[in-house]
Amino acid sequence: xxxxxxxxxxxxxxxxxxxxxxxxxxxxxxxxxxxxxxxxxxxxxxxxxxxxxxxxxxxxxxxxxxxxxxxxxxxxxxxxxxxxxxxxxxxxxxxxxxxxxxxxxxxxxxxxxxxxxxxxxxxxxxxxxxxxxxxxxxxxxxxxxxxxxxxxxxxxxxxxxxxxxxxxxxxxxxxxxxxxxxxxxxxxxxxxxxxxxxxxxxxxxxxxxxxxxxxxxxxxxxxxxxxxxxxxxxxxxxxxxxxxxxxxxxxxxxxxxxxxxxxxxxxxxxxxxxxxxxxxxxxxxxxxxxxxxxxxxxxxxxxxxxxxxxxxxxxxxxxxxxx
Length: 323
Description:
Blueprint: H1 2-32, E1 34-38, H2 41-51, E2 55-59, H3 74-81, E3 85-88, H4 97-102, E4 110-113, H5 124-130, H6 156-173, H7 178-202, E5 210-216, H8 220-225, E6 229-234, H9 244-256, E7 261-264, H10 271-280, E8 283-286, H11 295-299, H12 304-318
Helix pairs in contact: 2-6, 2-7, 6-7, 7-12, 9-10
């Protein structure tokens, strides 16, 4: 009987020891997991698709907050200070990033500029000034992007390059999981390639080539990639105000080209789009710049690909493309 009791005690001891070892291994795995902080939603979604469960990815921009009005707080500094990687799109989209990084003492953090190797094109305000218009415009807000357009992810070719840049940084920081990251990256890039081909195919047979956006100048890259004409209400950021001349010009464009839809942007009340819709009788459709998403979309796990698929659907309606 004593031998039997001793045997049971030994078995219990081994079980407890096994559980303790498993917990230690799990804890060790947690401590080894990479922590990544991304600034904008596309970077967050790209990174999540690459790392799977092998890294913790944080979106610095709170869901529901408009990207251009974001100002980092002390808590954001703490998040970056404890991260292994900080991924942003460059100084033209996140001009605050330099000051944020100067405030941290984490010398081991890898700072990743996802725009590396991507040729930036001039923004609306840059073009106006380069064409010799030296006047001070009241529709250029203090928070405009300056000479270059930073919305590079809306060109799906650029999006693929951004994914590759993120992959290279992850592989450098975590070489043990390099093959895993590469496999996921390749699969995700193929999704972007397929979507890009769908855009090109669907825009082949459209009655119109012009789309008008009642938001800020964000879709320049998309328009260029698919040979479309594009007019936006705001030359700079959404904080700026269009001039009366700009509004009159857009109204004339809508009427002259028999435009049936005007687009509004996410997370911002479509004031100007509503005004133009009332005065011209057009309908409204959303065109999502994907800078950030709403709290509801974040909670239901919306993806960058899903946003771009919805954009394609709405653009086809406005351009009167054959289904």
